Amino acid sequence: MSQTKKLSIAFYWHMHQPVYQLTPQGDYLMPWVRLHAVKDYLDMVLMVDKFKSLKLNFNLVPVLLDAFIDYGEKNLHDIHSRLTVTPVEELTDDDKQFIINNFFDSNFHSMILPNAEYKNLYQKYQLSSGNDINIFSNQEYSDLMALFNLVWFDSIHKNTYPDIKKLIKKGKNYTLQDRIKIIEIQRDIIRKIIPAYKKAVQKGKIEITTSPYYHPILPILLDIKSIKTSPQSDLPSNLKMELDAKVQTKLAFDRIEELFGIRPKGIWPSEHCINSKVIEMLKELGIKWTISDEGILSYSLKFEFARDFKGYLEDPYHLLKTYDCRGTNIIFRDSLIPNLIGFEYPNHDPEGAANDLYDRIKVIQSKLLSSPDDNHLLTIAMDGENCWESYLADGAIFLSTIYGLIENDPTLETVLISDYIEKDNKKPLNKIGSGSWVNRNFKLWIDEPIKNLAWTYLKQVRDDLCAYVKKNPLNPNIENARRELFICEGSDWFWWYGEPNDSGRDNIFDYIFREHLKNIYKYLELDVPAYLDISLLSAIAKPSRYPKGEFTPILDGKTNDDENWLNAGCIKIPDGPVLKENKFYDKVCFGYDKDNLYFRFYINEYMKDTSPTLKQANQMYIYMRNRDKKQPLSPIRLIQKAENILPISKEKFHNEMQVSIYEGEINLLRLVKAIPNNLWAIDSPKNITAVYDKVVDVSIPFDDIGIDKGNTLEFVFVNASFGIKDFFVPNEMLLTITRM
Hints:
Layout: E1 7-15, H1 32-46, E2 56-60, H2 62-72, H3 79-84, H4 93-102, H5 108-112, H6 116-126, H7 138-150, H8 156-160, H9 162-170, H10 176-202, E3 206-209, H11 218-223, H12 242-260, E4 266-267, H13 276-285, E5 289-293, H14 294-301, E6 323-325, E7 328-333, H15 336-344, H16 350-366, E8 377-383, H17 396-407, E9 412-414, H18 417-423, E10 427-428, H19 449-471, H20 478-488, H21 491-496, H22 506-523, H23 536-539, E11 569-572, H24 579-582, E12 585-592, E13 596-603, H25 605-609, H26 611-614, E14 618-626, E15 634-635, E16 639-640, E17 652-653, E18 655-662, E19 665-675, E20 679-682, E21 689-692, E22 695-701, E23 712-721, E24 724-729, E25 735-738
Parallel strand pairs: 1-2, 1-8, 1-9, 2-3, 4-5, 5-7, 6-10, 16-24
Antiparallel strand pairs: 6-7, 11-12, 12-13, 13-22, 14-18, 14-23, 15-17, 18-19, 19-20, 21-22, 23-24, 23-25
Helix pairs in contact: 1-10, 2-10, 7-10, 16-17, 19-20, 20-22
């Protein structure tokens, strides 16, 4: 019987937030550094002390560490925390409007639903007419601010801080002193983060790496000309930002050495974006190793990693090796496991999910018997902060279980990446593929109209800065201006600009980006260009196509036998890193004739191929209202799934059309109409039609939804299952059709 070969595992957690300030001394416009600090950053590293041999790897981006210092040592605020410590009697109407719109930004199922008073306030808010600030009393505003901050505390802090346990138990009737105490404890937790990581490094329990200071996409800065773009792309031909990439990388390593007393050996390139120019730069800077994604290794080796229907790699060998690419060592992460941890496992019992991951690790290990090598490294590298709020106990049960299973298995070990690379025999890698962890390209940050416009703005401002520096090299504010430029080179602005990602706060990201560009001119005492006052979000229209005219299609649920649909209006829903697995349909077309409204939903082929998904009830909703005739209107009654509540979700409608698909068939077709007092009642029209074969075809008579000739119908689509909203289509506007 063959002996099991030992498998090394590198858990590698990436911690990052962008700059949420407008100036170095100003308030943060978003609270995510502070809230994730009390929920994720500290307990993730303290967990190593629970296990004798556990070793973990953390990637800490310097801009995040600077924010810890701002909150913990400089006592800076974000808008949310400043309001939290403000007496309720002093809140302005604008303050109350901000609180209503922003203090429900918490995971509904794990944060709002389990808390009775927070849930009551949320329901009251959802049923309110518009954004009426008078729906809450002063005491309720106080409670809302306290509860919003309390639900973000990781459970570990309840034992460390008895006051937090008491405040959580209190439930309601919070005072100003209570709210001040909450923020003080949050600051105390933040002050402990950097020392905790430093102590773990000194004990040899963790390794720290970093990314370029403000998290830019290195291949774009280094060589935009080599990146494949669409023929009609309006990108600048050359950014001339090669030096910026090198300086941002060196500054990051200097900062980590300053804070932790040790210079990192490895680097996590932002978003695992890599190409040959990045490898050359890392070698020049003396950086020992880096990481990228399975897809880039596949591209580099011209070897496709085949997986079976359960996601198991048929041959994991190449993925478990370290490589030497022109003097720089590279490891590659498994791409399936982060998706399981981030999006699938939160839906299951945490111990069961941990055991599933352990079983997957053991299956990988079982396929090494024929390997010619003794050493193999499975790299589990992913975001370390955003998924845990969807887990029971903030991920603590899941992580403790998987760490324990590995620790108690003598054939498995967790390792520090640098230690492992030093002892391993590296395989030569003569050529490195160019791309990121998303689809092996850079499409999430470039080559889309709004993203391209942002790069054009950035290049123009940089050119102005360089021209000024050439003439005025001794201006003491040049370094401040250059810092603003580096901030604007960060990946996050381009991630949220344009399609397909939507933060629910894209307008704020747009505002921060443009303000930092303006700051460059202000530091140099130059006139700010007028174009920087124009939101990029409004500069380019959202891509959608309206019907070319009236048409009457055949309703058969097929896709290839009706040319009439070629005249329809259509919206394609792009694939994001998460959306591909979640969306039930990936395109919707719409049109009309003199009597009827028509819709066609194109079912996501990815979901068709994953048959277990279609055994769930997948629901499509259409919310409609007459723009020209007064009707009773009621709010969307779907549960908000995401943290960020879109403005469109607060709109009210007269009709709700629901089509439910179960096990490949339409099992529910229902029209609901609004009645007074924000309520809904089931309607009973007889002439609505829905057919499903390869697509879902729907026909709704205009008369059944109260649209007379000359009236304009406003409508929006919602993808949802079990009454839980996933996303709106489109997410920032209502579509319109006028009955002729």
